[in-house]
Amino acid sequence: MSGAVWYLAEVYGGDGARSLWLGGTVAPTRCLALRWLRGQAVRIADGLDPGPDRAWAPPGTLWPTPHTGAGAPTQLRSWVRDLGLQEAASRRLADGMPYDFVARDASGWYRLYARPVHIPSAPPPPEEPHRADRARR
Fold this sequence. Notes:
Blueprint: E1 4-14, E2 19-27, H1 30-48, H2 72-81, H3 83-94, E3 99-105, E4 108-119, H4 131-136
Antiparallel strand pairs: 1-2, 1-4, 3-4
């Protein structure tokens, strides 16, 4: 197949009742598509569970809760830091296959998705007649 290959990257979220498209982009390389997904993973994780060093709530407002397993924010942050998963995602896209990662917890799920998009090459424009040829017509 001739033409360029670009990469569609999208993020979805939802729960048992609904699914929402949270954003997307088209990138010229798989590395840029994965970089965008990593940025979205951090954005979602920080939106759901800001770090304790963030000054977003007055002191004493929040209290620790018992650990109930890795929630979606923790899973998303782990995906961003896991170089093995990043390399596997890049290889999968290089092989022309889609890639997705889903983080789940009791409140819902978040899906990071990327796939190659083949852009057909445009046919060359027809040649314009030379100036001398146009004058003879």
